[in-house]
Design a protein that fits this description.
It is a single chain. The protein is of the alpha/beta class. It has a single domain, classed as Rossmann fold (3-Layer(aba) Sandwich), CATH 3.40.50. The strands form two sheets. Strands 2-1-3-6-7 form a five-stranded parallel β-sheet, with helices on both faces. A two-stranded antiparallel sheet has the order 4-5. The longest helix has 15 residues. It is globular.
Length: 168
């Protein structure tokens, strides 16, 4: 027999969800960041990527719309896919849907409020950033190590918590 305390049931019911979107070329750093942040958030939020969604037989659009926070890894490849509204396919699976990302973040203002953009490379004028996007939710991690004590990561975590728990 499995017993749950009231606190555990509350935690299970209130589990928040964060979604990481990134092009395959950014997967190594993006996964390091996701793992670091998941370690910090622990039971407060479950962070997923597109491969996690595919493994659960879920649809990206549904998960995107229901996510409490979305972290988009900005890069030349991701920006190109979004600008051109193209899809990236790896091993026969859609791993990055530029058309969906462009459509949802330009048409859905509620979803836009849940977006954070992280750059591991130097930002350029060609990088895709939605119109009227809050610059305080863009994080530059170029040359930064993903490790304990990094003030940029601490600030990113703070912003994520604000969005996930609607404290903004």
């Amino acid at each position: 027999m499995l017993l749950f305390s009231h606190r555990n049931l509350f935690a299970i019911r209130e589990m928040k969800c964060g979604l990481f979107l990134y092009a395959e070329s950014d997967s190594t750093k993006a996964e390091q960041l996701k793992d670091h942040l998941q370690g910090k958030l622990q039971w407060m939020a479950d962070l997923k990527n597109v491969r996690d969604i595919l493994a659960e037989d879920q649809k990206l659009k549904v998960e995107l719309l229901r996510s409490d926070c979305v972290v988009l890894i900005g890069s030349p490849q991701a920006s190109s896919l979004i600008h051109d509204k193209r899809t990236e396919i790896e091993d026969g699976f859609e791993t990055f849907d530029g058309k969906l990302i462009h459509k949802e973040f330009t048409e859905n203002k509620d979803l836009l409020k849940r977006l954070i953009i992280v750059f591991f490379t130097k930002r350029t004028k060609n990088d895709w950033i939605p119109a009227d996007f809050d610059e305080r939710r863009i994080f530059d991690l170029e040359g930064e190590k993903i490790r304990e004590g990094n003030p940029i990561l601490d600030h990113l975590l703070y912003r994520m918590k604000q969005i996930v728990f609607r404290d903004e």
